[in-house]
Amino acid sequence: DIQMTQSPSSLSASVGDRVTITCRASQTISNYLNWYQQKPGRAPKLLIYAASSLQSGVPSRFSGSGSGTDFILTISSLQPEDFATYYCQESFIMPFTFGGGTKVEIK
Amino acid sequence: QLHLQESGPRLVKPSETLSLTCTVSGGSISRSSHFWGWIRQSPGKGLEWIGSISYSGNTNYNPSLKSRVTLSVDTSKNQFSLNLKSLTAADTAVYYCARRILYNTDSVHTNWFDPWGQGTLVTVSS
Questions:
Q1: Predicted confidence band at B31 (pLDDT cuts at 50, 70, 90)?
Q2: Window 40-59 of B, Cβ < 8 Å to A
């Protein structure tokens, strides 16, 4: 199985901050990488697919980049509704695996 | 807008079988570019993909669960189901159903999960 490692596991930030979350795959996965946002008590919601494609309806302050083994999710200007946990997921090979999550908290 | 809703028991005894159903509304389950799957989330193991099924019954399972999992689909009801047998406390989790979208072009073959159901907490306990 491909191991997906996210860093940091948690971070504190203020509204308006630029936030970056890193995801590393244990082997190359091209751009087969998706990002999800999960709020407490809710299901994960797709933000980014194929490493850099923004899902319809997702604010443009979210962006994704990377290829191969290293990927980044960027929130250009953190908004109050963005405080949540973020997960990466590889879609290169089954079983599809998820990262351990990055919890974004209010500073 | 597509909506998925899980249904089934919230409490199951050890060694028994869990049966969950996902009802799809707002669209047909019979699309060749879609698979329908199950993902669970527990504090100990995070998010774990269980398996997926197409409308025609083609299945993919996580090898770690394959011996205990069966997925099925009922296109007449726009539903798909999960059976997980020989339960232990380690199977306690929130179970989500989700659509897996397949995107294929000449140069790109990828997939992602969207949307997800709201999830149902299943507790395995006597």
A1: confident
A2: 46-49
- In chain A, DSSP assigns E strands to 4-7, 10-13, 19-25, 33-38, 45-49, 53-54, 62-67, 70-75, 85-90, 102-106
| Cβ distance of A98 and B49 shorter than 8 Å | yes
Instruction: Give the number of C-alpha atoms closer than 13 A to the C-alpha of residue A70, restricted to the C-beta side.
Output: 1
**B16 and chain A: CB distance < 8 Å anywhere?**
no
pLDDT digits (tens, 9 = 90+) for A15-44: 999 999 999 999 999 999 999 999 999 999
For chains A and B, count residue pairs whose Cβ atoms are closer than 8 Å.
56
Beta carbons of B49 and A45 less than 8 Å apart: no
Give B105's contacts (C-beta < 8 A, 6+ positions apart): none
